[in-house]
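Components:
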Amino acid sequence: MSSQLAEPPPLEAVDDRPPPAVRITAMTVPGVAASDVDAEPVIELDGVSCWYGSFRAVRDVDISIERQRITALIGPSGCGKSTLIRTMNRMNDLVPSYRTEGRVTFEGQDLYARGVDPVAVRRRVGMVFQKPNPFPKSIYDNVAFGPRINGYRGDMDELVERSLRRAALWDDVKDKLGQSGMALSGGQQQRLCIARTIAVEPEVILMDEPCSALDPRSTLQIEELMAELKRDYTIVIVTHNMQQAARASDTTIFMTMGDDRAGYVVERGATTQIFTNPKHRLTEDYVSGRFG
Amino acid sequence: MAAATPAARPATRFEPALMRRKLSGTVFYGACLAAIGLLLLTLVALLVDVFVRAAPWLDVDFLTGVPSSRPARAGILPAMVGTFEIGLIVGAVTFPIGVAAAIYLAEYAADSRLNRLLQTNISNLAGVPSIIYGILGLAVFVRALALGPTILSAALTLSLLILPVVIIASIEALKAVPQAQREGAYALGASRWQMVRRSVLPAAAPGIMTGIILAMARAIGEAAPLILIGAFTFVTFLPNPIEGQYTVLPIQIYGWATRPQADFQGISAAAIVVVLGLMLVLNGLALVVRARLSRHIQW
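Structure:
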């Protein structure tokens, strides 16, 4: 990834933040301290509102997602976190009556511009869902599905193995690649979905509450995996679990909803700042557990 | 027990009546058992009766012979071949058209009022008496398209008859595929067709094939509409699909069963056994297709 080369520090450099208090050691990947990664935006939302028919679910969001960082979206239920993350790969297009207002850019390109094909967008901005949704096919075919539909011409066996290794699943499944992906445990299924996602070599991975259906041990495995993956990928994760956001993310975006039930962004900042020194009263109430 | 405290609960708040509840469960179980018992008894009685009557007539000569006015020499081959040819054509017509229509309504068309109206009407079509389809087939295929009273006309008429069943069953099978499967395919950069072809259709294939099996069984058992499409009860040669006279097993059975001579009742029963056998073969074929379609599907 070219972005690992040195680039001028961005405006919102967070290198001078206090020592991370809530970080756990599992997250510190050797050789890649968070400060080594430059904070160049990959996805930018500019005045984004999300509408379902006449209902505005999200209003006026201006945020940027930085390269090779893990950005967590937190906030109470129904505040539009999932809706917002789904604007980033045009997944909401599948919902009839849905429309996006404002600008969503990916690598500088307007995702909703005329002529932009959502099918092409989704290969580059992959997604992992709340409930693991492997296809009712073999483990091998689950991983090979994306490469096949996208016309992959290389060595499929090698790609499947590499993707499963990246998703920390290879050792669990190498002797049973022909078995159904549905037969795996919940945590393994979710790692299979991650392997499936990275097999098409996306630049960004969106994760919509990927651990909400998993037990704590599987959750920790996924978090460790995310820390590994951010060397190569930009990750956005929606989570209900504040400990997870605190443990696993570099940047946190806190959303809540107003009286009109439309969600909006209250505060965005380095995760340590959001959790130890929030600027906004609403954020403080939420992260300290007084609300939501 | 501190009976005097205000928190003491009245003793009669619940009436568990465990015995009565258990009894009603037992009664229901008994009713279910009686229903299946009655069905099995009827089926077995019918089968035994048919087989007993058919036994003296069922032999190779019967299977390879042609109808004759003398019961001892009557055979069923023309009717068997007619039914088989019709079955093949009906399958070849209804499978692609029915499944494609279902895919359009379930996966492509917006879930609009028009769409729901269409689906309701298709369901209603499944309940239209088959003789009406016979009249339609006579007007459209035999006369307007000038296909004549042939196997082809008969097969197309029967295709119209069972298409509603195939479409509705396929729509239900497609709708039963979880939305998460579609999203999973889309999230990997699948186009709509790739999503349908590689994700939804394989997952729905078993349900679709079950619908087709049931519909085919109905088509093969139909006699009424074919009376109007010119099926004969006495055909002594193997039918050509696109021209000339033809007959099918249900019509042949009807023809023999309405004869006064007792021997013809016997060969009628033998023909019924042949229909049952043919049905088994065709359903077996559909099962093989189903297994092949869902070969890679592992829930």
